[in-house]
Amino acid sequence: MNDLQVVHEDPHLLVLDKPAGLLCVPGRGEDKQDCLSARAQRRWPDALVVHRLDMATSGLVLMARSLEMQRALGDLFASRQVEKRYEAIVDGLMPVRDEWSLIDAPLMADWPRRPLQKIDAAGKPSRTRWRVKELLPERNATHVWLEPLTGRSHQLRVHLLSIGHPILGDALYGSEAIRQRAPRLLLHATMLEFAHPADGRACRFESAPPFV
Q1: Are 23 and 35 in contact (CB under 8 A)?
Q2: Sign of CA dihedral 142, 181, 35, 125
């Protein structure tokens, strides 16, 4: 199986649209070898991972086509020069404001319950901006834009849970009722924006969420 949704391809990098339920990199065990990077490398043997999405999350993933480009793109992520935007559908009706709101809550591994993360004052600084795209009162839900200002594991999922609005379909952090309200985690990486390391040109890639 080598289905790939290619958003952008050039000699230096790739932008792929990952489906929900597919790992970004191989996991442990024979049953976890099919993943986005393996599929990409069958088509582009030079493809290298730069960043990851959770298995349950769909959307845009950037890959490099050389070690030099992998380092350059990695540096852009590390220095927060890549703008990322996600969309999610969450439980409950969130307050509508003209400006972005900020969740500022440090995260750390919840060791007895790995791979879960938790909010803890001793954790790493973690910040997420959010803004309402559309209220969905008939579903008691809200369609939101999310911009992670840091890149912690499960950051968006834990931050939204912490303010009382878990993402629908979240099998890790949601209650049974939350899990039952969607066939998958309703979280999608919709936008990546950065300066192309090869020539400095502005790049912006978008992908509409496959859920409404």
Answers
A1: yes
A2: positive
Q: Rounded CA gap, 181 and 188, in Å?
A: 17
**pLDDT given for residue 2 in this prediction:** 57
Report pLDDT digits (tens) over 26-59. 877 777 788 999 999 999 999 999 999 999 999 9
Q: pTM value? A: 0.94
Confidence of residue 212 (pLDDT cuts 50, 70, 90): confident
Cα 34 to Cα 1, 51, 55, 154: the distances in Å are 8, 17, 12, 22
Tell me which residue has tokens 């993933």: 61
The two three-digit tokens of residue 37, written as one number: 């990077």
CA distance 206 to 209: 10
Q: What is the pLDDT of residues 146-199, one digit of tens each?
A: 999 999 999 999 999 999 999 999 999 999 999 999 999 999 999 999 999 999
Which residues belong to the active site? Answer: 54
Taking the CB of residue 174, how many other CB atoms lie within 10 A of it? 20
Smallest Cα–Cα separation from 206: which of 194, 190, 195? Answer: 190
